[in-house]
Amino acid sequence: MKLSTQIKPISYLKSHTAQIVKELADSRQPMVITQNGEATLVVIDVKSYEERENTLALLKILAMGNQEIEHGKFRDAEAVFADLDKADLQ
User: SS3 of 1, please?
Assistant: First the structure.
């Protein structure tokens, strides 16, 4: 993804909002909006936003799992499956 091709000034956003919404929905590429020559925000479509949020949530879960492993807060898979087997027999 090349953000450099999707940089527009805020005046373009103001005057072409409907067109931008359609382009973002179709291309699913983010657009950088500048104000006074500096990047100030990134606009993305809802589907892309939801996918990013889901990805971040999964990464957070993985990071938390790694921290628990580092702190010794885990059980061997064999022990977990053995407990599950015992629960099924009861």
Answer: coil
User: What pairs with residue 43 in β-bridges?
Assistant: 31
If you classify domain 1-44 with CATH, what class do you get?
alpha beta
DSSP state of 16: S
Which two tokens mark 2? 């090349």
Residue range 6-41, pLDDT digits in tens: 899 999 999 999 999 999 999 999 999 999 999 999
Evaluate whether 56 touches 30 at the Cβ level (below 8 Å): no
Instruction: Please state whether the predicted TM-score (pTM) of the whole model is above 0.85.
Output: no
